Amino acid sequence: MSVEITSGTDRYDIAVDGKPAGFLETRTRPDAILFLHTEISDDFAGQGLAGKLVSAALDDVRSQGRSVLPYCPYVRSYIAKHREYEDLVPEDKRAEFEL
């Protein structure tokens, strides 16, 4: 299985063997990148693709030196389970996201 993650305007996409498998919708603001919605196609559910997609997107944001506001419940729970990403959420916003 070949997994490819790409970023475009206001989203990250994940494909498996060249077939679209899902996306993470974002919005860029001057102070942070808002993570709004993560969706994986039913055909690819249960393969851990959402986690791979979110991890890659968070790593990308870190490489840009940006912050994240995790409005997407999946992204919020992912950060809560993977505390190494918590620093991407501004300290004064963590309580708002229960982090």
Largest sheet: 5 strands, mixed
Any idea what the shape is?
Answer: globular
Give the ordered list of helices and strands.
EEEEHEH
Q: What's the helical proportion of residues?
A: 10-25%
Rounded Rg: 13 Å
How many beta-strand elements? Answer: 5
Q: Which consecutive residue ranges, at least 5 long each, have pLDDT under 50?
A: none
- Output the number of helix runs: 2
Average pLDDT reading: 96
What structural class is derived from the secondary structure elements?
alpha+beta
Q: How is the largest sheet built, in terms of strand order?
A: 1-2-3-4-5
Per DSSP, what share of the residues sits in E-state strands of 2 or more residues?
25-35%
Straight-line distance between termini: 34 Å
GO molecular function, one term: acyltransferase activity
InterPro entries: Acyl_CoA_acyltransferase, Gcn5-rel_NAT, GNAT_YJDJ
Keywords: Acyltransferase, Transferase
Organism: Amycolatopsis speibonae
